[in-house]
């Protein structure tokens, strides 16, 4: 996946979830409630929680996760330094496969950051 595809990827995934929202409404509502509760500010702020989520997305090699969490991190003002430091932890915890996905995560973050700067 190259950097120019994360905007399209997240848009496509959102569109593809329409059938699940329609036919598995209870599951999707439950997942939405879980996400809202997990990401609500508490002892950890939302940005910290998004950095954790991104690290898990890198470690689990989830392309969609990279796009959605990169977009959220840009919205929340994560700095390039914070993002790279998180990637270091993700690589430490996930080894070589996570290193490959860290490069993709960086591309997703850069793509959404550039779009935010241009907006």
From TrEMBL:
Is Oxidoreductase tagged as a keyword? Answer: yes
Pfam families assigned to the protein according to its UniProt record, in alphabetical order: CMD
Q: Does the keyword DNA-binding apply?
A: no
- Which InterPro entries does the UniProt record give? AhpD-like (IPR029032), AhpD_core (IPR004675), CMD-like (IPR003779)
Q: Which UniProt keywords apply?
A: Oxidoreductase, Peroxidase
User: GO molecular function of the protein, one example?
Assistant: peroxiredoxin activity
Q: Where do the Carboxymuconolactone decarboxylase-like domain residues begin and end? A: 26-105
NCBIfam families of this UniProt entry? ahpD_dom (TIGR00778)
- This chain belongs to the protein called Alkylhydroperoxidase like protein, AhpD family
């Amino acid at each position: 996946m190259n950097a120019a595809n994360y905007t399209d990827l997240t848009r496509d995934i959102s569109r593809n979830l329409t059938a699940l929202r329609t036919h598995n409404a209870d599951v999707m509502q439950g997942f939405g409630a879980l996400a809202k509760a997990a990401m609500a500010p508490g002892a950890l702020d939302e940005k910290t929680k998004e950095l954790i989520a991104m690290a898990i997305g890198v470690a689990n090699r989830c392309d969609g996760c990279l796009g959605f969490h990169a977009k959220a991190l840009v919205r929340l003002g994560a700095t390039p330094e914070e993002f790279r430091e998180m990637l270091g932890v993700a690589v430490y915890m996930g080894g070589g496969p996570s290193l490959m996905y860290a490069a993709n995560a960086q591309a997703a973050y850069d793509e959404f950051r550039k779009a935010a700067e241009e907006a």
